[in-house]
Amino acid sequence: MKTDIILCGVGGQGILSIATIIGEAAMNENLFIKQAEVHGMSQRGGDVQSNLRISSEPIHSDLIAKGGADVIISMEPMEALRYLPFLKKEGWVITSSTPFKNIVNYPDMEVIKSDLQQLPNLIMLDIEQMAKDNGIARSANVILLGAAQKALGIEYEKLQEAIRRVFGRKGETVVEANIKALALGKDAQK
Amino acid sequence: MKRQLLLGDEAIALGAIHAGLSGVYAYPGTPSTEITEFIQNNPLARERGLHSRWSTNEKTAMEEALGMSFMGKRALVCMKHVGMNVCADPFVNSGMTGVNGGVVVLAADDPSMHSSQDEQDSRFYGKFAMIPTFEPSSQQEAYDMMAKAFDYSEQQKLPVLMRVTTRMAHSRAVVNVSEEPRKENELNYEAEAKNWVLLPANARRRNDYVTAQQAQLEDEAEKSPYNIYKDGTDHSLGIVASGIAYNYVMENFPEGCPYPVLKVSQYPLPKRLVRQMLTECERVLIVEEGQPFIEDMVRGVAEMPNVLGRLDGTLPRTGELNPDVVRKALGMPLGECFDPCKDVAPRPPALCQGCGHRDVYAALNEVLREYENPRVFGDIGCYTLGFLPPFRAIHSCVDMGASITMAKGAADAGQWPAVAVIGDSTFTHSGMTGLLDAINENADITVIISDNLTTGMTGGQDSAGTNKFEAICRGLGLSDEHLKVVVPLPKNMPEITQIIREELSYHGTSVIIPRRECMQTLQRHLKQNKAK
Known about the structure:
The complex is a heterodimer. Chain A is α/β, with parallel strands linked by helices.
């Protein structure tokens, strides 16, 4: 198996915690992993992305080629569009629908939505509202992970186990909130 | 062997600990910061009591490491590429003294300048200082090479420069790590004064010795297991690929590369292997991350139409490589992909909401509006973002500490008002000496040391001067009358603007210290306290 993933959002939105869970699940399956992250200046409210590659064969490049990503997981709708040239024509975009407006020239949300809806494989979720409604406000990003499960090609149970290992130290409440978030995302898959 | 998912920086750090390191010396700088942070938090490093506190700058770091080496122990020095400029004096001269305990100098280059002011390639420093240079191509190699680099340093009695780039430093991969770490070296007294006292008579002898040693270093590079010549079936092209550039080449040949490939990860350049490729292949493509270091050597001054690379436009002349630009250079068709979305707006980084630097710039801008031609000399840190809207507050940012000295030079030229804005960590890194120049001449400048009690831009590392800034300024000879401390908050705006006005109108050197904790570290501290 081989899955190339772009995780993106705005600095501070916590895309790396999704990467940690996927990485943990992949490690446990003895897969090869490469995960290029953005550290430094961009983390201050700028656009951030991480190239995450998992494969049963050795991986050479830390970066994904254009047209190579199987899935884009985005914490922010406009940020999902930023990386479109890297997406396979039949790739998936899994994104939060909530804009993060820290720039004055943020485009009209209707335009962004319509651009997204033209894509063949899109899941757009109001993860913040979903998380709030279910009392798991701090686990909103894991809803996206659940919604990406099929596109990632990782078994649901493996992601559950990875969450237990990653959040185990933080106690059962945190683990359960994230398991619930994962389930909410899974149910939202098409 | 144990499998661990590690950042390149973490693989380097763990490799060093497992190689019997006794101390890491570093100043934070993207993309090198995580190496020292990893060592600070590593259980074995703590158990062994390895030195891992931040140094004041890269020069002090390099010299401290040399001192540790002098006593026979292994030391690692880490910095971003521009840090090499700061430690160039001890670095180049460490090539003359040589080492006792192994020394590895890790320079993390930042092609495409993700978080830097230039794209300089540290391999030039290795060549210039006649110091052998390693350039790992994967996280695993980075881990493995650390042990080799320390052994090699002690075997050759020279420091080793290890050069990585952003994508290696900040990319994770599965690394097989040893479960039997080497012990630290014992203290010894083998360092000889005749090598370490670089008086001209000694230095001339050492210079002859190290210069003569270069042939042997090149010979070692020819035999190095990290420099691999893999023959191919198609000799119409040969590829020389160094460091992580090798990965971008191989990414484009999932079934294996038909052309001969020379992977270079140890310098001096193994010239014989390069000549072999030039003889056996019709054309040679040179793929390297950073500046055309190998390519320039291969071309020399000869016309070489059969050599392809960054200098003839086959690859972009500047900027970071990726699988696509390498694919294009290989003459292979690019895959089908979506066009860039025209509705996406740029999202540049910005100062955090609630950040004290914001209040400093708001106050400074308000006051400077009253002057005809004010000039504000900026420095390196989060507050460089004060150049961007909405503040547009600074006119320069060159290198660590240049705000104060450039303001002084401008004042010397007749500029008034001349203001310097510098952060607390940058001030102790390279601003103090410049302030002494200003105070000694009572230069007509106003220096703002915007103190957020941390090294903010790199993620909140300890800042060397915390709680000492007033004492430092007084010690440098500044009078109390023109040393002011304020708390940068919107509610204090009248007081801050008043103080700035007063100090601008004083025709001599004054220092204003706005002091309030960084929002990032504040949130971290609040979380930690809550957890307690």
